[in-house]
Amino acid sequence: MNKIYNIAIIGGGPAGIMSAISASQNGASVILIEKNHKIGTKLLLTGGGRCNLTNIKACPKDYGKEGDFLIKSFSEFGALKTIEFFKKKGLKTKVEENGRVFPITDKAQDVVNVLMNCLKENKVEVLYNSRVAEFNIKNKKIASIILENGDRITAQNFIICTGGKSYDVTGSTGDGYAFAEKLGHKIKNPKPALVPIKIKEDWVKKLQGISLKNIQLSIFQNKKRKLKQAGEVIFTHFGISGPLIINISKDVGNLLEKGDVKIALDLNPDLTIEILDKKLQDYFLKNPNKIIKNCLLDFAPEKLSLEICNLASISQEKIANNITRQERQNLVKLLKDLEMTAVGLLDFNLAMVTSGGILLKEIDAKIMASKLIDNLYFAGEIIDLCGATGGFNLELCWSTGYLAGKSSAEKLI
Ligand SMILES: Cc1cc2nc3c(=O)[nH]c(=O)nc-3n(C[C@H](O)[C@H](O)[C@H](O)COP(=O)(O)OP(=O)(O)OC[C@H]3O[C@@H](n4cnc5c(N)ncnc54)[C@H](O)[C@@H]3O)c2cc1C
Separation of 106 CA from ligand 1 center, angstroms? Predict the structure, then answer.
């Protein structure tokens, strides 16, 4: 390939596509290189195929302690700009619970179609079935990249947008981490994030399929509470999942590196221990001949009530009248503090995102450029930042992609 491009972008996910659109809109000639036969493979899976493309409330502080890194990219292209971008291209959006934004058509394919049209309009060259294998460096600058088939691509600036390591069937196999390391960058250990949690106790696995809404969850290490959050938990054959679990998984993963982690569920967060005990006592008095497993149904689903009886070593058939004070207090304790042991997270192939990545201190947040290599930029999940579920991770891609594309094009002038 003899042509010299202004900008070569590696990875046709949301970050790479947005980088390409933004660079070309700023006057650059752009090539977007994707190893799959189509772009946006993971994007099509997002939001269960509906694509939760941003969150109306998204702001840098939603991305944890180092979220300030995103101040510049969000000020240039935040959630409102994302919504406006798609609207201008003919795709209206709607806002659902907790600020989650979806295309009005509920189809991720429509989001991909808008992006493909936009690449076409801006004359971005898209190279499919082309895996970047190597980088050629001369005088602290990338001179060219070599594809797996041996072809060489030459450009003035390069943007790496190869994503993380999760759902590797979509093409996100962590190639970018290896490239960046070879180029001298340090990588914070990539770990699965937004992923279900494996639990040790067998009774948890027996509850597979049960969903608990509006419960309070606490995480403990060395008997100290590390986190408290409310939401929905779903029991599975390996442990626990559901929106609340997915969002705390990164914290659990970090704590597991330091030692044992206990997770405690409060099934009745609106009732204090004393009020719950009184309620149970009154119920037993009013229903003296009712068997205990049926007495608990107001406080926990049936299958879980049975397990709570087992954990309290009370026969499920014992009648209320025969429950001792100590047994009642044990039941109250379990309903308020149902403890289990986290033993690990599920693997990358089931994680929605990868935490870790290119160290933020090695990237200039004002332009998304490498501080080590003169003509290198990064955008998207490859950088050491990720958000909760709810559209925050795609917003990170649109924002950083927009800024990387724009600033890499401006540098040519
Ligand atoms: C099931 C699922 C549902 C999700 N739902 C949502 C959601 O609703 N909302 C939300 O905000 N986030 C969601 N996410 C997260 C979101 O999809 C990712 O954060 C986002 O796709 C990351 O974009 P990216 O462009 O950085 O990387 P990716 O989307 O991973 O794209 C990277 C691209 O680079 C290509 N590539 C890799 N290596 C090379 C190479 N060597 N040469 C050439 N090309 C290469 C890959 O093939 C891939 O196409 C979801 C994730 C999953 C797995």
Answer: 19
Whether the CB of 42 sits within 6 Å of ligand 1: yes
| Closest CA to ligand 1's atom 31 | 13
Domain that holds residue 382: 4-191+355-410
Look up the CATH number of the domain holding residue 376: 3.50.50.60
The answer to whether the CB of 164 falls within 8 A of the CB of 341 is no
Which amino acid residue places its CA nearest to atom 47 of ligand 1?
A: 171
- The answer, yes or no, to whether any atom of ligand 1 lies below 6 A from the CB of 405, is no
User: Of 221, 219, 256, 223, whose CA–CA distance to 344 is shortest?
Assistant: 256
- Same-domain check for residues 269 and 359: no
Question: Are 135 and 268 in a shared domain?
Answer: no
The residue among 219, 205, 214, 220 whose CA lies nearest residue 304 is: 205
Which of 311, 326, 346 terminates a domain? The answer is: 346
Same domain as 146, residue 69: yes
**Cα 35 from Cα 135, distance rounded (Å):** 16
For 223, 276, 314, 376, 392, the CA distances from 81, given in Å and listed in that order, are 45, 48, 58, 25, 14
Is the C-beta atom of 380 inside 6 A of ligand 1?
A: yes
Distance 78 CA to ligand 1 centre (A): 19
Assigned token pair, 129: 């079935």
CB of residue 343 inside a 6 A radius of ligand 1: no
Cβ(132) to ligand 1 under 6 A?
Answer: yes
What Å distances lie between residue 199 and 41, 306, 341, 376, CA to CA?
31, 19, 6, 42
Same domain, 121 and 214: no
- Tokens describing residue 16: 């790479």
Ligand 1 atom at minimum distance from 48 CA: 3
pLDDT single digits (tens) 53-96: 999 999 999 999 999 999 999 999 999 999 999 999 999 999 99
Of 273, 300, 271, the residue nearest 203 (C-alpha): 300
Give the closest residue (by CA) to ligand 1 atom 35.
11
Model pLDDT for residues 229-280, shown as the tens digit of each residue: 999 999 999 999 999 999 999 899 999 999 999 999 999 999 999 999 999 9
Query: Which two three-digit tokens encode residue 295?
Result: 């007495």
Is the distance from the beta carbon of residue 41 to the nearest atom of ligand 1 less than 6 Å? yes
Q: Of 35, 11, 42, which Cα lies nearest the Cα of 352?
A: 42
Residue 175 beta carbon below 6 angstroms from any ligand 1 atom: yes
Nearest-CA neighbor of 200 among 381, 358, 340? 340
